[in-house]
Amino acid sequence: NDWLGWRGAFLLSGAPGLLLALLLWCTVREPARSRFAAGGHASAGNSSLGTSLRILAGRRSFVHLCIGLALVCIGAFAQSTWTPAFLMRTYHFTTGEVGTYYSAAVGPGTLVSIFLGGLLNDWFLRRKRYAAPIWILVAAFALMVPPAIVTYLTRDFALAMGLTLGTTLLGGIWVAPLYAVVQSLAGSNLRALAAAVASVITSVVGLSAGPYVAGLLSDLLASRYGARSLGISLCLLNVTYVMGIVHFLLAIRTIRADVAEAEGLVITSSDRGTA
After folding, report:
1. Region 144-163 average pLDDT
2. Which sign, positive or negative, has the C-alpha torsion 48, 51, 54, 58?
3. Angle at Cα 190 formed by Cα 185 and Cα 191, nearest 5°?
4. What are the angstrom distances between the C-alpha of 222 and each of 21, 226, 240?
């Protein structure tokens, strides 16, 4: 941005996506489906979109996960979007300086946390801990609240960056467990749809509503808190984590039964189709 302006910055940041898309196209193949996923005419995979969505909506843990995801994504994307602006306003850095400091914390932290979340999730599931992915979500967002609040209230830049690294590690650890448990609740025939529902919630609610709500709240608080209004706004949005955690805990109550139903639905449909 300092060198080329924001338009040039966006053009350059999009270029690696084209290279990654080419790499994905050349190296990744669709895995073979099991005989249960192939199913007959009665399988869920051959149902209409409305029928498939009703099947997913009938599993209470899936519904609570989606509601919880929508809530926590409001706070998560609001904070990730507005934190650079907050750092610029608070510590009077240029965009280049903030980009350097912030990416140094967020970039490696995100990579490590997403891989760690996948490893933890696999470790628990090998031990038949079916509710473990949701507990990872609960722990991650609960532990994010205190450091996030301090980050937006402190005037110590080193402390703010250290806490940002900590919240980044927690903020990425839930991604793999979330998609794992969502697809477990869907069964083989509805996994792609369930993952798509989660992605839509993340994009439409998180990326759209989160930054908007934070900016609106900051404007409303500006007359009272002045330049501090953005930090106060981002602090207040931690309440979305608490609200989301409530729904994650509700999902735990029925997760085992809903996963069993999802697996049973696929097997029953397949058997019925080949009978």
Report:
1. 92
2. negative
3. 65
4. 42, 5, 21
Residue 106: DSSP 8-state: H
How many contiguous H segments (helices) and E segments (strands) does the chain have? 13, 0
Task: Assign 3-class secondary structure to 172-211.
Answer: HHCHHHHHHHHHHHHCHHHHHHHHHHHHHHHHHHHHHHHH
Question: Which letter does DSSP use for residue 47 in this model?
Answer: S
Number of other CB atoms surrounding residue 207 within 10 Å: 17
> How many whole angstroms separate alpha carbon 240 and alpha carbon 221?
18
44's tokens: 């869920």
Amino acid residing at 52: S
Question: How far from the centroid of its chain's Cα atoms is residue 85's Cα?
Answer: 22
Is the whole model's pTM more than 0.70, yes or no? Answer: yes
Alpha-helical segments (H) within 28-131: 35-38, 49-57, 60-91, 95-126
> Residue 269 pLDDT more than 70?
no
Determine the average pLDDT of the residues in 155-160. 91
Look up residue 122 and give its two tokens: 């696999």
pLDDT digits (tens, 9 = 90+) for 183-199: 889 887 888 899 999 99
Residues in the chain: 275
